[in-house]
Amino acid sequence: MALLRLIFNIAWFVLGGFVMGLAWWFVGILCFISIIGIPFGRACFVIGEMAFWPFGQEQVNRRHLTGRDDLGTGTLGMLGNIIWFLLFGIWLAIGHLAHALACFVTIVGIPFGIQHLKLALLSLTPIGQSVVAKV
């Protein structure tokens, strides 16, 4: 299973994952330029790593993961997600959707398109989410 995951991740990286991972990291750098955007920037780098190598990883709501609320899963997290969506989230989602449509053209690309759709959903509301390894 690990070998298959490695093969899929390498194919993903070559066929669009590199571009979207760089997009996430670019947005992270933009967030770090403003001091108040540092928490958003940190999330961008974590999700950017997932955008580079998505197979074997998934996003989980931190409330479900830890069993308790925190700053990102409460009202402030919702406000942060709204700000994120308006500034960066919609553009990253559009990028992932465009890559997903290109991947769905072929049967071989369907698993890659599904990963892009997962990342598109994550790019809309990343605050309060954690990236974990699949078991």
Describe the global form: globular
* Major sheet size, sense and barrel closure: 2 strands, antiparallel
Describe the strand arrangement of the main beta sheet, using strand numbers: 1-2
> What low-confidence regions span 5 or more consecutive residues with pLDDT below 50?
none
- Beta-strand residue fraction: 5-15%
Number of strands: 2
Rg over CA atoms: 15 Å
* Content-based structural category: mainly alpha
Element-level helix/strand string: HHEHHHE
Question: End-to-end distance, in Å?
Answer: 11 Å
Helix share bin: over 70%
Assembly type of the chains comes to single chain
Mean pLDDT: 90
Whole-number tally of structural domains: 1
Number of helices: 5
Q: How is this fold's topology laid out?
A:
Blueprint: H1 2-33, H2 38-52, E1 57-61, H3 62-66, H4 75-103, H5 110-124, E2 129-133
Antiparallel strand pairs: 1-2
Helix pairs in contact: 1-2, 1-4, 4-5
What do these coordinates show?
With 135 residues, the protein is mainly alpha-helical. The chain has one domain. The chain has 5 helices and 2 strands, in the order H-H-E-H-H-H-E. It has helices at 2-33, 38-52, 62-66, 75-103, 110-124, and strands spanning 57-61, 129-133. A two-stranded antiparallel sheet has the order 1-2. The protein is globular. The relative contact order is 0.18. The mean pLDDT is 90. InterPro entries: Inner_membrane_protein (IPR052937), UCP028777 (IPR031308), YccF (IPR005185). Keywords: Cell inner membrane, Cell membrane, Membrane, Transmembrane, Transmembrane helix. This is Inner membrane protein YccF.
